[in-house]
Give the backbone structure.
Amino acid sequence: MKARFLWLDMRATLGERKTLLSVGMMVYAVLVMPVLVAKPPPHVLSALETWFGTSDPFMLSLFIWTDLAMNKAICVLGVVLAGSLILRERETGVLQVLLSKPVSPASYYLARVLSACGVMALLYVGANLAVAPLIARSVPGFRAGVFFASMAVHLFAAFFTVCFSALMAVLIQRRSLAMLVSLLTLMTLVGMAFMGFYNPAWQGISLLNPITQGISVLGHVDDLGPAHVLGPIGILLGINAVVLALGALRVRQLEV
Amino acid sequence: MHAIEIDRLTRFYGPVRAVDGVSFHVEPGEIFGFMGHNGAGKTTTLRMLLGLTRPTSGSARVLGHDVVRESLEVRRQCGFLPASYALPAHMTARQFLDYVAAMFDLAPEVSEPRIASLLKLFGLEAAADRKLGGFSTGMTQKVGLAQALINEPRILLLDEPTSGLDPLGRHELLEHLRRLSAERGVTVLFSSHILSDIETLCRRVAALHQGRLVAFGPIDALKSEHRSANMDELYLTLARRAA
């Protein structure tokens, strides 16, 4: 599959209503952030003290942005961008036109998922670039390097939500059910993402959770090194590659 | 070498025999009619020719390429217009044609003039930058035909291409197919249940009834063999005999 096709697909996705919905969600997350940082909910303060043993305002802002905003946003965006991939085209009859071209179903699937990841990256990076100055202005001791390192790792967890939602779509083959299963599974993974922080006994098993990998920099804010960033990115790349491959294998059996 | 060669092609959907041991061939450059009522197996046969549906048994070759093992090469050389389809509502006609051209790996310097000429050919220049979601059935069909021609195919597989077109659009399409065949040597496999279209355009036909081939050959020969004055009579005779 050529880069030009990927680019055209990404451009087309950017023009879809679902992308506008995603932009709206990201804008909301950015705008609400200064309010949340100024007056954090008591349970968030308590969680921060218990799990991370700190009340550092920068750590608080990073935690709020990562968990309260982006973790939820990537779940919904992943499902919105890829939860009905292939299925919607098949239902409407677009798929039989496109698959009559010299593109295998698996290549087409991969291209569509990668293009959805591209859109996710664009929205994600845009939101982070927009929110960083807002946080920096209201939080003393804002560390841009740590903030962007953490979000860089988390971006690969965002890619996981896209790949996973696409996999569910082609495995379940029923649009609403696939989206529901994706959303519930991803929300469960988000809910369990900090398990290793509040109960160290579960730290090992929680590393199997891709969202935990995505938020792992939060555990190394004061001793951040390249391994703390590249390690989880490598693991998430591996997980995403496996999930993508499973989806492509399933799509190979697809008949239009 | 035949342009299309089908040998005992069969496809079952569970207990339903959608296509049952169909064999015929299409010569290079001819416009070949593929007739049968709705559900006769025409669409399934066309899909099998493109590798979109796997045959249960039998084989088919398009320009010498096996449709199962070399389906990508078959698709590279074919243009296809399905009977029932939609186009991406959020794209404009130009964007969609560009998108399809990219699937054929056509460079922009090749695809752009080709898209411009197809838009002109189908009278879509004024609507080229409008979203496909707002297109009428006839306009959608024209974009559908344009996408089928974007790769300058050697073979065109058209499934009920005249349905949804007004009389003028239908006439223009048939004329265009005739020109493609005469001037560029494009082979056209034209499926339709509008028998007058087939009679206007084709010299030879294959007729399907309940998944089985009930006739294959030149229209004139079939008419005289079955003592039919016109295509409607011919088809009814064939269908009644098969039933």
Summary: The interface with chain A takes residues 47, 50, 52-54, 72-73, 75-76, 78, 80, 82, 84-88, 90-91, 95, 98-100, 102-105, 108, 144, 147, 151 of chain B (CB under 8 Å). The two ends of chain B are 34 Å apart (CA to CA).
